[in-house]
Amino acid sequence: xxxxxxxxxxxxxxxxxxxxxxxxxxxxxxxxxxxxxxxxxxxxxxxxxxxxxxxxxxxxxxxxxxxxxxxxxxxxxxxxxxxxxxxxxxxxxxxxxxxxxxxxxxxxxxxxxxxxxxxxxxxxxxxxxxxxxxxxxxxxxxxxxxxxxxxxxxxxxxxxxxxxxxxxxxxxxxxxxxxxxxxxxxxxxxxxxxxxxxxxxxxxxxxxxxxxxxxxxxxxxxxxxxxxxxxxxxxxxxxxxxxxxxx
Length: 247
Hints:
The protein is mainly α and about 250 residues long. The protein is built from nine helices and no strands.
């Protein structure tokens, strides 16, 4: 019986150098390379060499200042501050990439659902046009594979909606924790006393609304209404209770 090699033509033993042997072992171990995911592509494009040290080192950053100021310790503090801000930005981009990857999955499921609805409308239209001839010929049976495919689509949609509900619940819970932590400043007297009563009432109203939203989250969809704190006077910029209510 003839044995067919599973390796590419250029990876046979008799003509292998060390690099080719390593490639052959990897080919046997992992097989063909899988295409990169959306999150991998976005991360490679947006987060590659994103740290400040990859752009400019501290020594190079010091050269931007006049000769008389290069020995100042403030230069290192400025560099560290810029580095922290850049790290915060890259972390936010990384979170946005994960969200975008999930949104892409949801869009795919929505497109499949839309195509399924369109197909059903076409089937219903054909059934109406056929009319009595359809019933005369007997009721059409649905294929088992089609039923399984529909059930898989419905399962994916339910999982997506459930994930959205979990995300909404976690976000509301974090908002409640932030408000509770901010109100701890009131216990230790860190907030100014002027106008404190009105701001405290507004803050408690926010907490009440969040509690009500938590109780109704299971009836909301993943793309439901979001809580806009900018519409509440106590949450607007410049208000002394802003840092106490929201982080």
